[in-house]
Design goal:
The protein is of the alpha+beta class. It has two helices and seven strands; from the N terminus they run H-E-E-E-H-E-E-E-E.
Amino acid sequence: MDAMDDTVQHSGATWPNWNANDTSGYFPPPCSVNARDDGRAYQTQIEGGPVVDPQASVEAMKAHWESKGYRITHVFDNRGPNTTGIEIHAVTPRGMLLIFTPTKTVSFIKVVGECTLDPAAAKKTT
């Protein structure tokens, strides 16, 4: 929740449906800690408004995430004749994946939590 909210605050886009206090809808697909699919990792994605300059938004997010000690793993430039977006991925020191995709028409943030063996993580939040 904190990583999502921090990304929202530094994105440069509007997120009309984002509520930092709403924990519903987080989905815990399987992941691997010690053996194949023995853990769970909560994930969620939100959709927001457009940004004027996707490249500048990604560069600002990259600098922000790096200042927090996150490792940038990928930057995908999807700007071609039919697309307007760019996507950046980062991993936190604890193993959480953050994906920020700003475009001139819509933006997305996806967060995939670190893989855990905690049995409570097998439940979808309501």
